[in-house]
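User: Could you go from structure to sequence for me? I need the amino acid at each position, not a summary. Structure tokens:
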């Protein structure tokens, strides 16, 4: 269930609701569909106490609004000027996305219609009469949903990632934030810490009446639990670091001699026309970066300068240098071979490949231009030459970008590598976490646990170890988890970060 609140979060959000009850919030409105483009339908959203007022003014009627009832209505601007015939949809507070009264106007998507409807709503702003209506800030609808306890911060980040998702795997990742997988884990961790703080509190409260040995045993138990928890958190961080490749894109670098067909290969494995194809050797002089979608994976591909020994062209040499640098930072290297080229692979490249192999880089050799090979022997001798050079170290795939022959097996091979790199091949959903979550895990949660170890390690055995201090360190760790989900005091500073990249209307 997407929007169900956990009891753990409900507590803090009640705190927010009570803050909101005293704070005055203007009614906000915005175009929720993409601005600046012509579309069949556009959706305008209005949220806040004056949503009903906006409806009655635009509709020029006093008719009672019914929760979630869709009505086809004429909308009028100032001076009873008919603006559009629209579908209107009203949600009664608190059963709406934002938790406030929320009105949706599904209008025609032209520039003039959307402009006139937005102007008409804006013109209803009348502060003197206590009717404050203004255009929404980026992410403000979602911010209100958070503040009204509809969603927690993990879900907020999930929504943003869902909207930003460009590929199938990114979409799946974003949705996994919704199914509460991470949230449940975080709550479990927090419960564990809180339980162990309770154990420490027992030492503080009853310490003087208990045997030193008992106290030490209790402390050892808490330490043991925290060692386990730390391991669990570190494993989680490792996993999110692997899957973060899905968000940022797998870094692929394309190598090969000039005119081997690097640019056409990019076009073949993706559906977009991203690279310029030319038949003059050395056209792709500098590295050109493009983000493409290869079978649902985001791939940041660098089309490098063709590597040619003894190039006299200074610009080209610079490009080659950059290609080598790129290759050092990439997750996967694709080497394109032109079977008609002599030598097949020059010395510079061979050396580079050998050293990358030593570093454990993923590598695929692609022999292009199969359509130009007239007899089978020709093709076989190319393969033999490559196998002689590289053995079975890398997969070698023959393709023709011109006829698309071999492209499908190549994409399959690449997909397997992407799965391996991001650990998404197993059945479970990939997990992702924002940079914010990762930072808090390190700087608050793990830091708190480590400080607990430092305090207890230095004092244990003596008769005066500082249990209060040790327990405070664990509280810091627990508060860190609260910061992640939004269940923490001083959360305002966090909100700015979470909502910074939202679009208006969401
Ligand atoms: N037209 C439209 N489409 C949309 C949205 C929207 O707000 N409007 N959404 C917005 O992002 C998404 C759907 N998400 C939504 C989430 C909650 C509620 C809502 O009304 N929640 C109430 C009632 C829940 C229920 O009846 O089960 C609530 O949480 O109390 C609506 C949409 C995607 N499509």
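Assistant: Here is the amino acid at each position, in order:
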């Amino acid at each position: 269930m997407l929007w169900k609140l956990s009891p753990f979060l409900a507590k803090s959000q009640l705190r927010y609701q009570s803050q909101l009850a005293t704070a005055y919030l203007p009614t906000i409105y915005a175009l929720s569909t993409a601005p600046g483009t012509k579309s069949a339908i556009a959706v305008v959203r209005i949220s806040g106490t004056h949503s009903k007022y906006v409806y009655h003014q635009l509709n020029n009627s006093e008719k009672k609004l019914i929760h979630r009832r869709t009505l086809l209505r004429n909308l009028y601007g100032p001076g009873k000027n008919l603006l559009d015939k629209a579908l209107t949809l009203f949600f009664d507070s608190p059963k709406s996305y934002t938790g406030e009264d929320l009105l949706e106007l599904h209008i025609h998507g032209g520039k003039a219609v959307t402009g006139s409807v937005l102007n008409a709503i804006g013109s209803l702003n009348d502060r003197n009469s206590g009717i404050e209506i203004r255009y929404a800030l980026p992410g403000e609808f979602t911010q209100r949903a958070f503040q009204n306890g509809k969603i927690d911060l993990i879900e907020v980040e999930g929504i943003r990632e869902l909207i930003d998702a460009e590929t199938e795997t990114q979409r799946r990742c974003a949705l996994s934030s919704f199914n509460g997988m991470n949230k449940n884990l975080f709550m479990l961790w927090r419960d564990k810490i809180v339980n162990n703080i309770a154990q420490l509190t027992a030492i503080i409260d009853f310490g003087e009446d208990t045997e030193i040995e008992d106290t030490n045993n209790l402390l050892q138990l808490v330490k043991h639990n925290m060692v386990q928890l730390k391991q669990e958190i570190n494993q989680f961080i490792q996993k999110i670091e692997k899957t973060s490749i899905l968000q940022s894109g797998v870094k692929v670098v394309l190598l090969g001699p000039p005119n081997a067909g690097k640019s056409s290969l990019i076009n073949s494995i993706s559906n977009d026309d991203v690279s310029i194809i030319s038949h003059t050797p050395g056209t792709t002089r500098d590295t050109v970066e493009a983000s493409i979608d290869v079978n649902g994976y985001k791939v940041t591909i660098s089309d490098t300068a063709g590597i040619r020994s003894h190039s006299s062209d200074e610009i080209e040499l610079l490009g080659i240098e950059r290609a080598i640098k790129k290759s050092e930072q990439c997750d996967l290297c694709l080497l394109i071979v032109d079977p008609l080229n002599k030598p097949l692979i020059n010395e510079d490249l061979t050396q580079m490949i050998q050293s990358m192999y030593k570093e454990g880089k993923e590598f695929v050799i692609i022999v292009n231009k199969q359509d130009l090979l007239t007899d089978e022997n020709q093709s076989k001798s190319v393969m033999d030459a490559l196998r002689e050079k590289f053995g079975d170290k890398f997969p070698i795939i023959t393709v023709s970008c011109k006829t698309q022959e071999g492209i499908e097996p190549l994409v399959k091979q690449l997909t397997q590598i992407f799965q391996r790199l991001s650990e998404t091949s197993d059945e479970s959903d990939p997990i992702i976490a924002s940079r914010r979550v990762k930072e808090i895990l390190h700087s608050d949660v793990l830091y708190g646990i480590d400080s607990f170890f430092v305090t207890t390690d230095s004092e244990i055995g003596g008769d005066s170890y500082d249990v209060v201090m040790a327990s405070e360190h664990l509280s810091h760790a627990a508060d860190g988890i609260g910061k992640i989900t939004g269940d923490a005091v001083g959360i305002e500073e966090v909100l700015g970060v979470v909502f910074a990249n939202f679009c208006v209307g969401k």
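One structural detail worth keeping in mind: The domain at 247-421 is CATH 3.40.50.300 (Rossmann fold).
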